[in-house]
Amino acid sequence: GAVVSQHPSRVICKSGTSVKIECRSLDFQATTMFWYRQFPKQSLMLMATSNEGSKATYEQGVEKDKFLINHASLTLSTLTVTSAHPEDSSFYICSAGPLAEQYFGPGTRLTVT
Amino acid sequence: SQQGEEDPQALSIQEGENATMNCSYKTSINNLQWYRQNSGRGLVHLILIRSNEREKHSGRLRVTLDTSKKSSSLLITASRAADTASYFCATVPYTAGTASKLTFGTGTRLQVTL
Questions:
Q1: What pLDDT digit, counting tens, does each position of A52-79 carry?
Q2: Cα distance between the two ends of chain A
Q3: Could you tell me if B74 and B87 are in contact, meaning their C-beta atoms sit under 8 angstroms apart?
Q4: Are B36 and B42 a contacting pair, CB within 8 Å?
Q5: In angstroms, what CA-CA distances link A53 with A32, A37, A100, B12, B62?
């Protein structure tokens, strides 16, 4: 099946700094990618829809100025967590798919100290 | 927003037994999908069932969909220890332009013991 990668897999940063997470579709082009956040033992919550060549669409309650999304090419979307706080510590997962079926990246574990 | 609820939240069975997980949702859907997640890992797509389908099989997996009750079930037959994971249902709304936007259920944590 299609492959989606994420980098880094784990990152630890200090409070107040920014962290960039990359999501790549390796063997297909993705005009749309999705970013999710998952807290321990909880389900995935959709944060935003990343659209190639246009602005991302954010879900209600997600601060677009804090979670910057850039989808500059058909195979790459980036999520930047700006001015990170400890409460931003979470598992961030992206997905993309050539059809209705979505392929998920392996996730990025963010820890803000 | 999270619209699906799954039950049970946790399920512990012995190897060889069947595992059944249920998912309920709230709005009209285009399709419903089941995913598996091993601890701390990404999600693996298991099966997709469209709103006009009632049952689907894939290997040891059987999925049913009842749109009148807005519910679905996932049956794993002859479970194995390697099936231990969290299982999530996810719905795609019946709305143009949101073909792949998934709303996840709360998940069922399955533990299969030897």
A1: 888 999 999 999 999 999 998 999 999 9
A2: 37
A3: yes
A4: no
A5: 10, 23, 21, 46, 40
Given the structure tokens 């069922």, which residue do they identify?
B108
Question: What gap in Å lies between CA B75 and CA B92, rounded to an integer?
Answer: 21
Structure tokens at B76: 């794993």
The nearest CA of chain A is from the CA of B7 a distance in Å of 13
Do residues A8 and A81 lie in contact, with contact meaning Cβ atoms separated by under 8 Å?
A: no
Per-residue pLDDT of chain A (113 residues; tens, 9 = 90+): 679 999 999 999 999 999 999 999 998 888 899 999 999 888 999 999 998 888 999 999 999 999 999 998 999 999 999 999 999 999 999 999 876 678 899 999 999 99
Q: What is the least distance, in Å, from the CA of A67 to any CA of chain B?
A: 18
Identify whether the C-beta of residue A43 lies closer than 8 Å to the C-beta of residue A57.
no
- Which residues, 6 or more positions from A20, have their beta carbon under 8 angstroms from its beta carbon? A78, A79, A80
Residue A79: per-residue pLDDT? 97
How many residues are given for chain A? 113
A60 close to B (CB below 8 A): yes
Q: In the structure encoding, which two tokens stand for residue B91, read together?
A: 């719905």
Measure CA B2 to chain center.
14
Pairing of strands B29-37, B85-93: antiparallel
Mean pLDDT of chain B: 91
Residue B101 is nearest to which of A42, A49, A109, comparing CB atoms?
A: A49
